[in-house]
Task: structure prediction
Amino acid sequence: MELISNCTADALSKAAKALKDGHLVAFPTETVYGLGADATNENAVSQVYAVKGRPTDHPLIVHISSINQISKWATDIPDYAIKLARDFWPGPMTLILKRSDLAKDFITGGQENIGLRVPNQPLALALLAEFESLGGQGVAAPSANRFGAVSPTTSLAVSEELENYLGSNDLILDGGSCHIGIESTIINCTEIVPSILRPGAITNEMIEKSIGDKINLNTPDRDIKASGLLDKHYSPKARVRLNMLAEPGEGFIALASISTPVGAIRLTSPRNNKEFARVLYEALRDGDRFNLSEIKIILPKNGDLVEAINDRVMKSSFNEDHH
Ligand code: TXA
Ligand code: MG
Result:
């Protein structure tokens, strides 16, 4: 594995060629780092599952360079999905659509649907464009962490997670810290009315405004296999507990307006919700780097991104014995 910290044009063509040759390339997006593979190469995709330790019936999102690539991978695209793609791509939104013949079972986990996203990050877009110029069709990329663990938002976090699993020809591209910090909003576009499978920076209100209609707020169809829909996910090694003050020696995450309990180890003090989302995963990772056994998080009660932040933090704190 090689970490490339100076992503020149030469480095990007090397990375695109590595993908084309069936190797893995971890790359930054505006949400979290992805672990990329040629989405048409079964062997490369199986490496992604092996490196993550992820069950093979959990589908991967295919990343494309622009809306123009959408009809390669999807068919029967509803008008509202086109509106969403025009309004929010490139951006932190994944559309679940009926798959085309290009989307094989090894990408979709055997489902008839495909997840597509155009990320809004200059290095990611340049890599995707370069890959397509070599004849590539799309890059399958889950978050670049081991299954169930916290998603990485820095290249250091990617290498901490995966260095023991990546092969000698695999690459990690460094593009600094991810701007948004939590994963894309996933929208199911396979029905007459769209529904949200995973909340993110593109909110219900933004979606309803874009499509000029209401979305379906019912709980998503559990037949759709999405690991983001599991109760427990995004978990550090430390036990996470919510809306309680930290005891001495425990980790503490809360907005800056909340003061640090005596003796607690303050992991971050974001000034607002956007910053909370951006720093959350690194703060959880720091808790593990400091070998803390317990992290207490005070959730923001309202405002930007509150649904997405709560979703991730609840799952990171889910504990089997709470059943
Ligand atoms: O922001 C993101 O979406 C990041 C960056 C790298 O793009 N990617 C990401 O991928 O979060 P991953 O695999 O860690 O989470 C994607 C979620 C999983 O829960 C997966 O099961 C679900 O999306 N998913 C992917 N394709 C799907 C499909 N065809 N139908 C239903 N769910 C799907
Ligand atoms: Mg993930």
Observations:
- The CA atoms of residues 70 and 116 lie 8 Å apart.
- The radius of gyration is 19 Å.
- The mean pLDDT is 95.
- The chain is about 30% helix and 15% strand.
